[in-house]
Design brief:
alpha+beta, BirA Bifunctional Protein, domain 2, 24 strands
């Protein structure tokens, strides 16, 4: 690209709050994400992926799936059912411990996470420059972890700090109660407690209960992994931020079974691999990714890190990497009465494997990529909105644009579209000026536009226009498929 091409594009800096607002609007207008059941007023924190959104999400999931199962000869995939025998959730600890501390406001009838109210309060004190008070409340809050009556201690702190609801300013609090996050439904014709089943709150348990099925059928030897992509459900209080936190979402999880004593080495290796995946495979800039080490661990973990991403609304988790010890397999052995041990055929050793888990959310990653990609600039004096998505993630890989829609030019362009469509999702657009058509494609992140023009009729070449730089070059039309294939590696 020459320097004169680069100066054709001038960037516009946007504030983070503007980015979210514009993203939500673009997502709906261009068919990425719609509010669920919108004609009935929607349903809180539920969303539908539109034509472009579902293509983009599929690309994300395919990239994850291939990076796990195709690139590792010792990882295989499964697709377990969402509803499982309820004993699974007794054994996993979710029935007893998968709770959030909730507090209700009697006046407004709204419900809040008690711990979130306190954390927001501490953040606000810091923002207001009341650092000393913030540190004091923080240390009291941290000490609550060992309080004999956690709910009472949370309530006392909320009341003593005079914490109000952030959205209404009211503070007519009930006591704090623990609410289980699992959705329940009744299976069969009669609704009573004997036939309660849960919608899974994580995909991982479908993997643990299939440990021996997969190991035996695929002749896997420890260390090996099982990967899965699927829906999970959590009855959470959702604060907004579009699709960041939903009650129905999708996870991409991999459980890696290792010999006890080797889990830290495996953990560190997966930690590095997963972090690099976001940079190398998805093109996320490293400065937007952060590590967070958990001090407060989930009931199953002895070591846990999150990969966090700098969203426009703050730095938040996109993936958890957990050392789950032998907790899950041991629990399933105890509750099912089935032996979950692995026997090493070479040494004769018997043990319950330890597990390192990588757990990413495809919806959250979708939002991370969309917010990372949102860009406004000016090209040749014309403002434009562009999604600077990696070509691998972009829903449409190329657009075919005939300069004139009728006659030989139109026919040539249609032929090119048909050839490309055998391998890639392409769009054909012959309406409006060529400049407008480029803008339409920029806005949905299409990385390349192929234009069929007068010269194409003479020498069979076409123009390739690159989205980010607006740079153009000519290639032979017969090389278009190969051109895209190379760009998508
Ligand atoms: N099996 C471990 C597990 O479920 P987690 O940290 O609770 O761990 C893993 O969840 C990932 O799932 C998160 O990093 C996030 O990307 C996604 N996730 C969790 N809850 C979510 C929600 N309510 N909405 C959207 N994504 C969610």
């Amino acid at each position: 690209m020459s320097s004169s091409d680069q100066t054709r594009v001038q960037n516009i800096n946007l504030t983070p709050d503007k980015v979210m607002h514009k993203l939500v609007s673009l997502a709906k207008r261009r068919g990425f994400i719609f509010p669920s059941s919108e004609i009935y007023g929607g349903l809180s924190s539920c969303f539908d992926y539109g034509p472009l959104g579902s293509e983009m999400k599929k690309n994300i999931k395919d990239l994850w799936w291939n990076s796990m199962t195709r690139r590792h000869t010792n990882i295989v995939g499964i697709d377990a059912s969402i509803m499982m025998n309820p004993m699974v959730w007794e054994a996993s600890g979710h029935v007893a411990s998968f709770n959030d501390p909730m507090i209700d406001d009697r006046t407004t009838k709204r419900r809040y996470r008690a711990d979130h109210l306190i954390e927001n309060h501490i953040e606000k004190l810091r923002r207001d420059g009341k650092t000393e008070q913030a540190e004091k409340v923080q240390s009291v809050y941290e000490a609550l972890a060992t309080a004999p009556d956690m709910n009472r201690a949370l309530y006392d702190l909320i009341v003593s700090q005079n914490i109000k609801a952030p959205d209404t300013g009211s503070g007519d609090w009930t006591e704090v109660r623990q609410f289980n996050l699992m959705f329940q439904c009744a299976m069969g014709a009669v609704a009573d407690t004997s036939n309660i089943v849960y919608l899974r709150p994580e995909t991982a348990q479908g993997i643990f209960v299939n440990f021996h099925n997969v190991r035996e059928s695929s002749r896997m030897k420890v260390p090996f992994g099982i990967a899965q992509i699927g829906k999970a459900f959590r009855n959470e209080i959702v604060k907004g931020n579009f699709i960041f936190r939903m009650v129905e979402f999708e996870q991409m999880e991999m459980q890696y079974f290792v010999k006890p004593g080797t889990q830290i080495e495996a953990f560190e290796s997966w930690r590095a691999e997963r972090f690099n995946w976001y940079i190398e495979e998805l093109g996320i800039s490293p400065e937007k990714l952060h590590w967070y080490k958990h001090d407060k661990l989930a009931h199953y973990a002895d070591l846990a890190y999150d990969i966090k991403f700098a969203f426009p609304f703050g730095i938040e988790e996109i993936e958890g990497i957990h050392s789950r010890t032998d907790f899950d397999l041991s629990q399933h052995q105890q509750y099912s009465g089935k032996n979950m041990e692995y026997i090493d055929q070479t040494t004769g050793e018997r043990y319950i494997p330890y597990v390192v888990e990588t757990s990413s959310g495809s919806d959250r990653l979708f939002l991370a990529l969309l917010s990372d990609a949102y860009n406004e600039d000016v090209v040749d004096g014309e403002p434009r909105v562009m999604l600077k998505l990696s070509p691998k993630v972009a829903p449409v890989k190329a657009a075919v644009l005939p300069l004139i829609k009728k006659g030989e030019m139109g026919e040539k362009a249609e032929k090119l579209r048909d050839e490309l469509s055998m391998s890639f999702l392409v769009q054909y657009d012959d309406a409006a000026s060529i400049g407008k058509r480029y803008r339409r494609q920029d806005e949905i992140g299409t990385p390349f536009c192929f234009t069929v023009d007068h010269q194409s009729l003479e020498d069979n070449t076409i123009t390739v226009r690159y989205r980010d730089s607006a740079y153009q070059e000519r290639i032979d039309m017969s090389k278009a498929v190969e051109f895209l294939a190379v760009k998508l590696v």
